[in-house]
């Protein structure tokens, strides 16, 4: 229990720390429900996000629930993610950053011989964090007035899940989970007139999301050193409750409008992965599809939603699990790279992302593990007045495990 208390203290510390870093992220999160998370903690992030067919005895897989069967201790895991973006277009540039908790997950390894495990947790699904400023002249009372307008958004969606996995027979594992999707997205538009005495105005829209869904996964390892994995994630209709706030700063008047609740369709995601172990090395790749063509939220005449595709590849130099091995030899060393086509086309431009990753899985005391990943990449284009973003991500996880359920002999 002492280890569990330690990790809980760290979790609460991370939650307190998250409030100081929300200063802007990707401007492309202005579209739809924001940036969809890669779907992996630091151990998988360092493999380019590759995870569908990558079993781990310490990582809690967030894509394929069938892989929970390979975790042989009951564990708690918490993570933190820091993002740094450099945004530029046509001679203008801006640094933006944000940081937030990257999930709090747990797993109970009930019976290792049966591969029976239960998992639960909360992790981010999408992130909205942008800041855009414009200047233009508008006609007011036969006068052209300079208006400075800023558009900002924050928040995102999270999933709280509960699920289980089991070994059907030697080489075949299956898993499933149910989840609740929830979150708040706040968008704010502020207009000021620096050269005139016109009233400044602020409009805020708060969208509260809530819905349910399920996820299923399968993993087969009965062909030599080859692993094959697949998963499906299906969202039922998600409901949104919205409120609009209008404020005129000079006269200090407020208007609040409550909008009727309505539903949106978050599309299902499908993924397929392969892995192959060769000596001390593991090679793995993923392919994921999610079609947002029918998304009916935050629609914009300047943007068209479409299919999103993600491809990734990773290589891990597996650490030596022997007690007598040297410290550096016990570490997993991971590299990866990937390509992702975002689910939006704006001004006739598809928005693509390229990235590379590096990281390590470092055993510390007992079954405790520290994982970190560094991701560097580029997304977007400067065509049609859009922006190019160079981004860096640092993801850190800490997990601690204990044997809670002792194996017993069977007749």
Low-confidence stretches: 1-23
According to DSSP, the number of beta strands is: 19
Q: Can you say what the CATH homologous superfamily is?
A: Outer membrane protein transport protein (OMPP1/FadL/TodX)
The Rg value, from CA coordinates, equals 23 Å
Fraction in beta strands: over 45%
**Shape-level CATH architecture:** Beta Barrel
First-last Cα distance: 32 Å
The mean pLDDT is: 86
Helix and strand content put the structural class at mainly beta
Sum up the overall morphology in one term: elongated
CATH C-level class: Mainly Beta
In N-to-C order, the SSE pattern is HEHEEEEEEEEEEEEEEEEEE
* Named CATH topology: Porin
Q: How many helix segments? A: 2
User: For the largest beta sheet, what order do the strands appear in spatially?
Assistant: 2-3-4-5-6-7-8-12-13-15-16-17-18-19
Write down the domain tally: 1
* Biggest sheet character: 14 strands, antiparallel, barrel
How much helicity do the residues have?
Answer: under 10%
């Amino acid at each position: 229990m002492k280890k569990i208390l330690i990790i809980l203290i760290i979790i609460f510390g991370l939650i307190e720390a998250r409030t100081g870093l929300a200063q802007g992220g990707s401007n492309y999160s202005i579209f739809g429900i924001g940036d969809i998370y890669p779907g992996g903690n630091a151990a998988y992030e360092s493999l380019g996000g590759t995870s569908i067919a990558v079993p781990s005895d310490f990582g809690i897989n967030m894509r394929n629930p069938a892989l929970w069967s390979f975790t042989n201790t009951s564990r708690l895991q918490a993570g933190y993610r820091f993002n740094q973006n450099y945004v530029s277009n046509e001679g203008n540039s801006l640094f933006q950053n944000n940081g937030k908790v990257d999930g709090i997950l747990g797993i109970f390894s009930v019976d290792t011989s049966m591969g029976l495990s239960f998992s639960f947790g909360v992790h981010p699904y999408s992130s909205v964090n942008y800041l855009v400023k414009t200047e233009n002249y508008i006609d007011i009372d036969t006068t052209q007035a300079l208006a400075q307008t800023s558009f900002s958004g924050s928040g995102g969606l999270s999933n709280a899940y509960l699920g289980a996995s089991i070994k059907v027979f030697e080489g075949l594992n299956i898993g499933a989970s149910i989840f609740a999707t929830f979150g708040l997205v706040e968008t704010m538009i502020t207009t000021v007139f620096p050269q005139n005495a016109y009233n400044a105005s602020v409009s805020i829209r708060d969208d509260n999301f809530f819905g349910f869904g399920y996820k299923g996964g399968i993993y087969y390892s009965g062909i030599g050193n080859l692993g094959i994995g697949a998963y499906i994630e299906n969202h039922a209709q998600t409901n949104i409750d919205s409120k609009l706030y209008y404020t005129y700063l000079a006269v200090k008047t407020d208007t609040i409008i409550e909008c009727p609740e309505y539903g949106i369709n978050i599309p299902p995601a499908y993924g397929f992965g392969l892995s192959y172990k060769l000596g001390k090395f593991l090679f793995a790749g993923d392919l994921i599809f999610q079609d947002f063509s029918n998304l009916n939220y935050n629609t914009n005449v300047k943007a068209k939603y479409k299919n999103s595709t993600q491809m990734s590849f990773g290589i891990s130099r597996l650490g030596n699990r022997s007690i007598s091995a040297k410290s550096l030899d016990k570490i997993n060393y991971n590299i990866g790279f990937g390509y992702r086509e975002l689910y939006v086309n704006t001004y006739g431009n598809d928005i693509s992302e390229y990235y590379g990753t590096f990281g390590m899985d470092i055993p510390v005391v007992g079954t405790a593990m520290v994982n970190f990943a560094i991701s560097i990449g580029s997304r977007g284009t400067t065509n049609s007045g859009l922006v190019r973003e160079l981004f860096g991500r640092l993801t850190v996880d800490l997990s601690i495990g204990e044997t809670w359920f002792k194996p017993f002999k069977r007749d």
